[in-house]
Amino acid sequence: MLHVALGASLFLLLKEFPTLKSDSIDFEFLDHPKMAAKAVFGIAKRTEKVEQKEGLGTAIKQGNTLAKESDQEAGDDSKNLPSPTDEYLVSSMPKLSSEYRIPYPPEAKKKGIQGPVVMDLLIDANGTVRDVKLISSPSPLLSESALAAIKNFKFIPAQIKDKSVAIRIRYSYRFVLER
């Protein structure tokens, strides 16, 4: 009964209001001519070199960086180091492929110095250590030994899916005196 009453009241309301007329609008589709693709020139994050010279700003590598494969080697031209991939893009981090023991410096052993030498490593797509920066060390004796030997380390390179990439990692080598 309630449904019938609601339906009847809606019918009466609609009967009293005039019907709305809809105006039609004529329009036509225009065919746009196909535009030829234009070459785009610009910079990519990997190819940017920052050099402050006499306050003139940033020096940018010249060339068409978007129409061709990005340079894998950018940065300091004297070292020709690969650009490291951002860590969040990497699906597999580098792993040490073979254990390498750094010889304990005899002078540090005599003095009883031990502890971790923390380094920042740039590992290329082949798993080779290309650049090393010392972060912290308990002694210059240990850091000299570690920095000299770390270049001999070989890693299984970092990967994005199945492609090997260069990456920068923090690596710690701990010198421990045997008792």
Written overview of the protein:
The chain is of the alpha+beta class. It folds into two domains: 42-71, no CATH class; 79-179, TolA/TonB C-terminal domain. Helix content is 18%, strand content 20%. It is built from three helices and seven strands. The chain has helices spanning 2-16, 106-111, 140-150, and strands at residues 95-96, 115-123, 129-136, 155-156, 158-160, 163-165, 167-175. The strands form three sheets. The chain has a three-stranded antiparallel β-sheet, covered by helices on one side. A two-stranded antiparallel ribbon has the order 1-4. A two-stranded antiparallel ribbon has the order 5-6. A hairpin with a 2-residue loop joins strand 5 and strand 6. Residues 47-53 and 73-78 have low confidence and may be disordered.
Write the topology of this structure.
Blueprint: H1 2-16, E1 95-96, H2 106-111, E2 115-123, E3 129-136, H3 140-150, E4 155-156, E5 158-160, E6 163-165, E7 167-175
Antiparallel strand pairs: 1-4, 2-3, 2-7, 5-6
Estimate the mean pLDDT confidence. 75
What is the CATH fold-level name of the largest domain? Answer: TolA/TonB C-terminal domain
Task: Tell me which CATH architecture of the largest domain applies here.
Answer: 2-Layer Sandwich
**Fraction in beta strands:** 15-25%
Can you give the helix content as a percent range? 10-25%
Shape: elongated
The top level CATH class name of the largest domain: Alpha Beta
Give Rg in angstroms.
33 Å
- Unreliable segments (pLDDT under 50, ≥5 consecutive)? 47-53, 73-78
Number of domains: 2
> What's the number of extended β-strand segments?
7
Number of helices: 3
Largest sheet: 3 strands, antiparallel
How are the strands of the biggest sheet laid out side by side? Answer: 3-2-7
Identify the quaternary structure here. Answer: single chain
What's the CATH H-level homologous superfamily of the largest domain?
TonB
Structural class based on helices, strands and sheet pairing: alpha+beta
Distance between the termini: 97 Å
H-E string? HEHEEHEEEE
